[in-house]
Structure formats: structure tokens, C-alpha cells
Amino acid sequence: MANIESQRKRNKRTERERLENRRMTSRVRTFFRRLEVASAEGDAATIATEHRELVSAIDRAVGRGAMHKNTGARRKARAARLTTPSV
């Protein structure tokens, strides 16, 4: 446990930021799973909606620093592959 008051405050802030980052990355994973389910069902309208929400969540997480920009780009590329029909 920290003895210095400023370090106590910093520890609280770090924990709060960690939880916020976890919420954002968890949200991205949830939207990705929803996109996979929609892709398996084959409903084009649902796929488009889920893909739009996923890309928005990824961009928000990258913008806030919860996710690295290359990770965000990779996940968006994988999502784009799910939206196109497989041959």
C-alpha cells in the first residue's frame, strides 16, 4: 500500500482507467461475436448493422487508447472478411 497521498490517488486513477479500458475491449469482443453469429445466419441487413457497430466500437477504443491502432486495424480487417460472402 502506498504511503504517499499522490500515489494513492494515482493508484485509484489507474484502477479506474484499467476498468474503463476493459469495458471498451470487452464491448469490441461482444460486437465481434454478434457479427460472427449474424454472418453464420446470412442476414445481410443484420450483418451490415453489426459491422457498423463493431467498427464504431473499435474506433472509439483506439481513440481512447484502450486498444493499439494496429490491433484495431487488424480486427476491422477480420470483421470485413466476415461481411463478404465466402465462395
Account of the 3D structure:
Helix content is 84%, strand content 0%. The protein has 87 residues and is mainly alpha-helical. The protein has one domain (5-83): Ribosomal protein S20 (Methane Monooxygenase Hydroxylase, Chain G, domain 1).
Q: What is the topology?
A:
Elements: H1 5-41, H2 44-64, H3 69-83
Helix pairs in contact: 1-2, 2-3
Structural class: mainly alpha
Major sheet size, sense and barrel closure: none
CATH topology: Methane Monooxygenase Hydroxylase, Chain G, domain 1
Q: Give the end-to-end Cα distance, rounded to a whole number of Å.
A: 58 Å
Percent of residues in beta strands? under 5%
Features:
single chain, 87 residues, Methane Monooxygenase Hydroxylase, Chain G, domain 1
Question: How would you sum up this structure in a few lines?
Answer:
This protein is mainly α and 87 residues long. It is 84% helix and 0% strand.
